[in-house]
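To: structure desk
From: M.T.
Subject: fold request, one chain
Message: Could you run this one when you get a chance? Sequence is below, nothing fancy, just the single chain.
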Amino acid sequence: MTEGIFLRRPNRFIAEVMVDGRLEKAHVKNTGRCRELLLEGVPVLLEPSGNPSRKTKYSLINVMKNGQWVNMDSAAPNVVVEEMVREGRLFSDVTRVQREKTFRHSRFDLYVETGTEPARRIYIEVKGVTLEEEGVARFPDAPTERGLKHIRELEEAVREGYEAWIVFVIQMKGVTRMEPNMRTQPAFGEALVKAREAGVRLAAFDCIVERESLKTDRPIPVDLSVVKRRGRLDEKEEKEEKIR
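Reply: Done. Structure tokens follow.
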């Protein structure tokens, strides 16, 4: 890894950084907004591309926030969840692990089968989380219609006898709980409530982020009470509007 200083993000794919006194362009491996992370002057860790023909010499992997590294590589959460599965940290007696398996019209990150009777057939959708506010991790940091479609089709998978999981990988330490981001996309939080009621399992893990590695660590509670509070607030406002 190479250290640098973040300057600006001209578009969602490119960051301009200062490395050893020279201006360089780096590929941003996360298309989310990441506004609370990518602040002018913050330290970043850059991975050299190794491809001399590529326009960007580096990829931006980690950014410093409040004295700790936060991982921004959108491909990393899938890798660490697959490691958890293969190490037996999520399911026992795993006999099959397949990446990118399609169900209905969605391609899910992992498909797992176990050999213990009754055998389990499991679809897993992985969500990388980089947004943290006052110790609370929130997802998404930008609206995601694709994410809503995945949730609906995971419910279909449960109805057909599969297990379905949504695993939130919080790419940092220091959070106390995981919440849907109701400010950005209320529909996502409402969809999570319906999915949990339909039997889709929700899990979240924080991560140990080091200069050269990312590893899932502690389970973090997924708290959907903010959705119910929002629903009650909407109902109250609707009643007050009718009175007026």
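Reply (cont.): Helices lie at 76-86, 145-159, 186-198, 225-243. Let me know if you need anything else for the meeting.
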